[in-house]
Amino acid sequence: MTTGPATTGLATTTVPATTAEPVPARRWITARVRILLWLLLVTAVAFAAAAMTTRSILLRDVDNRVSRLLAQETGEFANLETRGKDPETGLPFTDPERLLVVFLERQYADPDEELIGLIGRPDGDPVRRVQPREIDVPRPLHADREARRRIFDSPDSTGTLHRASGEIRWAKVAIARSGGEPEAAFVVAFHPGREQARANEVFRILLAISGVALVMTTGIGWVVAGRILNPVRLVRTAAAQLTEQDLTQRIPVRGRDDVAALAETFNAMLDRLERAFAAQREFVDDAGHELRTPITIVRGHLELMGDDPAEREETVRLVTDELDRMSRIVEDLLLLAKAERPDFVTPEPVQLGELTADVFVKARTLGERRWELAEVADGEVHLDPQRITQAMVQLAQNAVQHTAPGQSVRIGSRLDGSRIELYVADSGPGVQPQDAELIFERFRRGTARRGARGSGAGLGLSIVRAIAEGHRGQVELRDTEGGGATFVLVLEEERI
């Protein structure tokens, strides 16, 4: 059978060196860059939508104004055709050409507008009569023979003519003799290219302004994102610096926003980790400190044990006693380690008088002392009866160890408003003032009681203090009238 290497004394627990996990390669798109990219995307979409909407509104306004102008000009001509009279004869117009001449002489077109009269000819090419004004466009309608013919031949009264040289919006009023085919037409032509170009220019200006705004947004967003993410970087830096040996790093908390709440939560987590690691180290140190001696005693006796039956029996008795003491130490250490857990104390409604009486009955079996139930408080309180009983019995055991048979030990409870006090008072040697705090530490005893009876490991009062703190209270040491020590559990619990 293969055995491991033997060890002398306490088996030393070797904590393996923490192997750092491989840190994944950082992605080149950091959170700051992602925030900035999303901000720029949303801003760019908003600016583009605003610019395109503005352009669409301007073009719609141009279209509406052209439609109103065409309707106005054709309406005026139709009114003259039906109601007007020839100024030379004073009679209604009978000649389409004369009607066109009179109307065109009275009109003044807009800069991008053409007023044209068309008279049909047998060869299909309408003769034009133009309102006497030149227009500054690449190819006006009166100079475009093909465009004039298409408009004259069109059965529609309005439309849009798309040409390589520019778009034309037009409207016409056909003139026909009574019962005959149209032989002339009045045409209003508008060239919207100039006004559409103005709308497009405004669109380009808006795009340029948006580009400048995006550049400014980039700079501002970069700075703001950096300030917002700075606590997150501090969290990452602090987490990277944390080791099992150093858990003291904390993040400065500034402000009251969500990021500040994150820093506070992270700091609280570090506090819990530090307490957990401290408790773990304390448990290991305490166990190693207290178990080393009994293990050495057991090992020494077993190595020196001979064949004599009496000697073997005595060795077994000593070894059993040491193993029992080791078991008690381990149980006490596990109890102290459990005190860090939230479920260490489970409060419930309890009658304080009954609890005090039960503790007194159990404590009387610990030794031949003059036990006294000094006072009993009456009321229902909220606490953990098992833990409180454990603490009070431990205090009673402590009193037994430091008193002689026949000496008095008093147990009692009292209520003072919301303050609950349960106490054990003995008539022993008492506790020196310099030891008042020392005795509640693990494996420590007061100098006045060090030679007293008992073989405890010095964990009893530590357990009592842990139970009191679990109830959000404390354990106090007070002087006993006539000599001795009084240990009081002070619990700040509301009565029910």
TrEMBL record:
PROSITE patterns: HAMP (PS50885), HIS_KIN (PS50109). The chain crosses the membrane at residues 36-58, 202-225. SMART domains: HAMP, HATPase_c, HisKA. It catalyses: ATP + protein L-histidine = ADP + protein N-phospho-L-histidine. The keyword Membrane applies. Pfam families: HAMP, HATPase_c, HisKA. Residues 286-495 form the Histidine kinase domain. Residues 226-278 form the HAMP domain. PANTHER family: SENSOR HISTIDINE KINASE TRCS, SENSOR HISTIDINE KINASE YKOH. This is histidine kinase. It comes from Streptomyces ureilyticus.
